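Let's practice the habit of predicting before peeking. Look at the sequence and jot down your guess about where helices and strands might fall. Then scroll down.
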Amino acid sequence: MAVGSTLGELGLSAPPSVVVLSLAGALFYALASALQHQAASDQPGELSVHAGLLFRLMHEPRWLLGNGADAAGYLCQFLALRRGSQALVQPLLLSGLVFALPAGAILEHRRLSRPDWLGALIVVLGISGFLVAARPGPGHPQASLAGWVVVSVLVGLITGAAVVVARRSPRHRAILLGLGAGVLYGYTSALAERTGRLFDQGVFAVLTSWTPYVLVVAGVVGMLLAQSAFQAGDLRFSLPVLTVAEPLVAIAMGRFLFGEHLAAHGLSPLVEALSLVVMTAGVFLAARSPEGHPEEPARPMAPSGEGDAGATVAREP
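Done guessing? Here is the structure:
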């Protein structure tokens, strides 16, 4: 009842369960990122953007546990998107950074630094400002095939370019692969929303649609890029870009494909844009805290000249 009345005051036309599921998903995703990074960062550099990396990680208990948390988070996100919009669910998922900070601190046996706390506070302020200004609401469940084609081509081009440049630029590999993963995760979020709403028409409607199959393929490729980004360097380099790219892409796709509501009167668009900038700044501040991410030694197994970016310069979700 309290959650429902608060949503009403904010002008958010979504059931309270959407908010609860989104926050639960953020918590699971935060735990997954911390565990997956710990496992992936121990893998040799030559496995970056290679299917062999996933096969190696399948033997890592920490990675498997992280995948379990990832699956739980995705289930929460999937259920939230059946009744909520991208513009509501994604910013709430971004709050996973607030959960990731203490989770990472516990796993690394350290205390949270002042930039950690300040970054988390800025993220929360940005999320709150965006939700109040945008008053996000659901759109129509069906997007045009032409719209999907345009979006899919753009996602493919951006992701492909990120991978190609990452292979040629070891120093920026973690950042570029994080960008590719974030774009793909934003794309899969839109696919998940469409697939989830197809269940209202029955299981047969889901199985005869193309969306769940593309969702699986894009999800696997996104996972490979994310793990490769984690393996390529410190979370400070991959996590901020991945964390910011996903909601920005998903919100844009929700607006373009599904016509989801975002307030467009008065100063609302300006406040929305500024809030997104504030969220982005908070993510980068928290994730790049020098006290929370000690310098890592270069991996002896990495190819010459392609050592860990975290060792040359003193990642979540």
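How did you do? The chain is about 70% helix and 0% strand.
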